[in-house]
């Protein structure tokens, strides 16, 4: 099924008008994708896979997941009762094809009439300012709508991301390691749909601590504490830690 440029492998049965779209950006330490995995795991039977997305910008990948189910390069999940649509990206982009993908994605978002869009991503810790170093939380956010931005700051005490480039393109945001989050956010400023980018500062390696901080903020923003309960990690994550598997390897 073509939907303004994006090819959905199955036609969704529901109208997503008024739903909240959540998607990851392939970023440093894979925080965005891991956050989506954790969200799907903790939603349990409240969420189901409804389609895949095939696009020429994505490396074509398929295989079996930890449950023995076939996975695709990009997948679409729906939590109907929570009015959530969640995208998971399991394959990298093909170089040079990201700009056209962003156009197709934004057209699809507009066509589906999503109420809000949240992008989950991360940014390299080396760009922290003195002000960032004085903050205990690695979490930051960006929002293209003033009303929501002010609410997140005043109601939830979120800290807005503010690192700017100093030399060329002075004044524009500097988001190294954030994947397509920066360009999607800049594209969103011309959109009527509210976009929120959830970011954590991190480095390469085990980012579970930063991931949990991001998930706590996402729960807060989506008011999902009651639906998710105490967060647990997917069981297949155990293979991520070399320390946990040292004896298994040898």
List the helices and strands and how they pair.
Layout: E1 2-3, E2 6-8, E3 20-24, H1 31-43, E4 48-54, E5 62-64, E6 70-72, E7 74-79, E8 84-89, H2 98-112, E9 116-120, E10 123-124, H3 130-133, E11 139-143, H4 146-156, H5 181-188, E12 195-202, H6 208-222, H7 225-228, H8 246-249
Parallel strand pairs: 3-8, 3-9, 9-12, 10-12
Antiparallel strand pairs: 1-2, 2-4, 4-7, 5-6, 7-8, 11-12
How would you describe the overall organization of this protein?
One of its GO terms (biological process) is proteasome assembly. The chain is an alpha/beta fold and 250 residues long. The protein has helices at residues 31-43, 98-112, 130-133, 146-156, 181-188, 208-222, 225-228, 246-249; strands at residues 2-3, 6-8, 20-24, 48-54, 62-64, 70-72, 74-79, 84-89, 116-120, 123-124, 139-143, 195-202. The strands form 2 sheets. Strands 1, 2, 3, 4, 7, 8, 9, 10, 11 and 12 form a 10-stranded mixed β-sheet that branches. α1 (31-43) crosses α6. The longest helix has 15 residues, at 98-112. The radius of gyration is 18 Å and the shape is globular. The relative contact order is 0.19. The mean pLDDT is 88.
